[in-house]
Amino acid sequence: PKGLLEDLLTASTSLTSMAHRIAVLQESLSEETEDQNDLLEELGELQHAYESTGGYDLEHQAKIILSGLGFHPAEFNSSLSTFSGGWLMRAALSKLLLIKPDLLLLDEPTNHLDLEACIWFEKYLASYRGAVIVTSHDRAFLNRVVRKVMAIEPGEVIQHHGDYDTYVTARQQDLETKIAAAARQEREIERETRFVDRFRAQATKASQVQSRIKRIEKIERIVIPRTTKKIHFTFPAAPRSGQEVITLKHVRKAYGDKVIYQDLNFVLDRGDRVALVGPNGAGKTTILKILAGVLPYEDGERRLGANAVLTYYAQYVLELLNPANSVINEMALAAPREPTQNIRKILGGFLFGAGDVDKPIAVLSGGEKARIALAKMLIKPSNLLLMDEPTNHLDIASREILADALNDYEGTICVITHDRTLIREVANKIVEIDNGKVRIFPGDYDNYLAIKETEERAAEAAEGSARNNQKATKFAAHNNTVLTARQQAEAEERLQKKLQHQSQDYSKRIKKIEEKLASLEKQRTDLEALFADPNHYKDGAKVVETVEQHRLLKEEIRLRTEEWEKLSIASETLKKELEAVTKS
Q: Is 371's pLDDT higher than 80?
């Protein structure tokens, strides 16, 4: 059977055919034949075409793509039969990216990617030269990748230039405009109808009545699209848990010879809303299962705190739904003491209307079953919620409803999800897991990303500085240069002045950017205040113009902020070098 890398390299059939033909020609040329000139000419043309289309770089590109999507170099030669379904989906995606078609069609491409692979994939698509059409329920992915949104709404297809968030803003504004226009239209229809009803029996008004009737019939009714509003949930009360809701002490977990955790210590405190992040295979699901009490371990202790009532959600719970039950009966079994009216209200919150609650589970889609499973879980009294990929199968509206529900949940939460929007809206603590090591980051997801980016840039700067020092040392040794004390002092003084000048330059540039950012933030605040003014929507052209201005402002603020962060890190590195030179 083919290995992963070998199978990937066969994806580009044109390049594979060229490589095969080049090999055949080279073999033919090793034998003396009469048509060697023709063979040489064909070989030259083929080699040029092979090189210009990236043939000689193909294996290198394949390895970059595999690594970016989370495959370890040690797995490159592994047989495809050894990978799970999710990893085979990544392998299939790798083939598409290696071929680089003019048009790339992607259906939920992030479903089988962890956060690190998602971030790499976003950067890859940002520089992709072909056209990309993607369907996705991952808002963060859409915001970073797309520049145009095609929304398929009931009865219409809406095209919007911009990312998903600006589409939502524009759609809301369009909705408000439609609501106002529909109200005006309804008043006009009522006025015309009153005239018709009043004068229908009068012969002298017959022509005018008929004219009004025709006018009413010709009116194209404005249809208000259905929208998902923010929903507040009331969950069954659970007892207040102790401060330490659940604790793992010195836990050891291994699968055969592969040790996942050697000495794991982990605590969830009351009020924690933790997102577990890290690459696939790092041990996120393992720790969640140990917390849930569904996975045994070899050593250590798992202890539930006082009054802790635990609920665990994983993908297998969808299989536990009874296909023969109706939606409302399935819910009632989960909470037999809950009033039917409240059950219907919760089902309504999870997008099950009055006509849906009597449907059998058997006819529901995967997304509908996931919503039922989540509703069943949340209707039970609990104060500790453990969730493994709860947004799988959910569309954007359902994900927003889940976020609403989790924000209204008063207990402690620990969740694994690759949906960054959900993490941003729910988590107040990020726990990173990598190779059995647990690292805690208090604060939200954006704070976590900022810390990680700062650390990466500092590491890159330190690595660059170390390389420069190594080069300088080698250069001095190579030239056998021996500086006198005076020469060395002069050199250090020149270096100190140079670093001081660079530091001052950085400070000036940072100050300028800070002033510019303050100005841009004020402009954005002013524009957003304008969006809140109903009179603003009277001029459609002005609305379009201000929405575009808002988008451009957000983009400029993002770029300026990135520039400020890079300069700040470089400035800090420079100051440390200056301090080292001054002390010496």
A: yes
10 Å Cβ neighbour count for 570?
17
Residue 222: name the closest of 187, 194, 195, 193 by CA: 187
DSSP state of 31: S
Question: Residue 138: CB partners within 8 Å, gap ≥ 6?
Answer: 110, 118, 418, 419, 420, 421
Q: With the C-alpha atoms ordered 316, 317, 319, 320, is the resulting torsion angle positive or negative?
A: positive
Dump pLDDT digits (tens) for 238-271. Answer: 888 999 999 999 999 998 888 999 999 999 999 9
d(CA 348, CA 343): 9
Pairwise CA distance, residues 16 & 22, whole Å: 10
Residue 86 Cα distances to 258, 270, 399, angstroms: 21, 34, 21
In this predicted structure, what is the pLDDT of residue 302? 95
CA–CA dist 303, 310 (Å, integer)? 12
| End-to-end Cα separation, the chain, in angstroms | 62
Tokens of 544: 């379009």
C-alpha to C-alpha distances, 438 to 63, 264, 275, 420, nearest whole angstrom: 29, 8, 12, 20
Chain position carrying tokens 């529900």: 405
Higher pLDDT, 186 or 162: 162
Among 422, 415, 338, 339, smallest CA distance to 380 is for 338
Q: Smallest Cα–Cα separation from 82: which of 174, 193, 2, 192?
A: 2
Distances (CA, A) of 506 to 100, 455, 564, 575: 40, 20, 10, 10
The Cβ-side half-sphere exposure at 214, using a 13 Å CA radius, reads: 6
The 3-state secondary structure of 326-341 reads EHHHHHHHHCCCCCHH
Residue 387 vs residue 494, higher pLDDT: 387
441 phi-psi bin (left φ>0, alpha ψ -120 to 50, beta other): beta
Q: Quote the CA–CA distance of 211 and 232 in Å, as a whole number.
A: 49
Element of type H or E holding 432: strand 429-434
Whether the pLDDT of residue 275 is over 70: the answer is: yes
Report whether 347 contacts 380 (CB < 8 A).
no
